[in-house]
Amino acid sequence: MTQWAATGTAAEPEVPTEAVVVTAWRHTDGRWPGRARHLARTVEGCERLWPQWPDWQERVERATEVLPEEIDTGDWFPRLEARSDGIVVLVRPAPPRRPTTRLWTAPGADARRHPAVKGPDLHQLSGLRDRARGAGADDAVLCTPTGTVLEAAHGTLVWWSGERLASPSVAGRLASVTEQRLRELAARRGVQWVVEELAPTDLAGREVWLVSALHGITQVTSWRDGATELVLAPTARAQGWHDALASMP
């Protein structure tokens, strides 16, 4: 079963509490950046949760083969929700892009059950983001048991290490479509990408970005890590890289 449901609002939809695999993307004037990667990640997540059904590739492709005409123009933020009994795609207007981000480190261990699949832990991640907002931030940062950065509740952390771009290991976190596209852009520009396992305090003085399908590349302007307010480097690069990324397929 496939169902298109128009919400008619940019407000965040109700967070599902049952098993679900999700992908969402910014859809502007009919363009879906990273479409193949979004669908491949969705199929992989469905196969992990429901391996007894072998036809997820066909199901997901069929669900998104024909998109509603209303999103051929304008700025939208559709969300595909796959469950064991069918697929629903919510069509909603995109909220305004946020060019900067304030972060808050979530205390305690990462309690997600399926960190490599987007969807099953959304309720927990939304709760962490709500706590971050209560602390005056936009998103919450999750860390490994040893205290190194994993990712944010609703985005991926990327930073500059000299003239190289860096991110944490993909182990234990979601494979970000936006990060994959950014890696491709970096390769085109001759910028090396490295993996670094760093604690939040190690990123003080660095230029840090939070990247996501909704907001693209955003500059991290503040970061509350426990009682410490990290001082981050200002940037003149984020907007230019964001514009270049937005023009890629």
TrEMBL record:
Name of a matching Pfam family: Aminotran_4
Gene3D superfamilies (alphabetical): D-amino Acid Aminotransferase, subunit A, domain 2
Keywords on record: Aminotransferase, Lyase, Transferase
GO function terms (MF aspect): lyase activity; transaminase activity
Keyword Flavoprotein tagged: no
Protein name per UniProt: Branched-chain amino acid aminotransferase/4-amino-4-deoxychorismate lyase
Biological source species: Kytococcus sedentarius (strain ATCC 14392 / DSM 20547 / JCM 11482 / CCUG 33030 / NBRC 15357 / NCTC 11040 / CCM 314 / 541) (Micrococcus sedentarius)
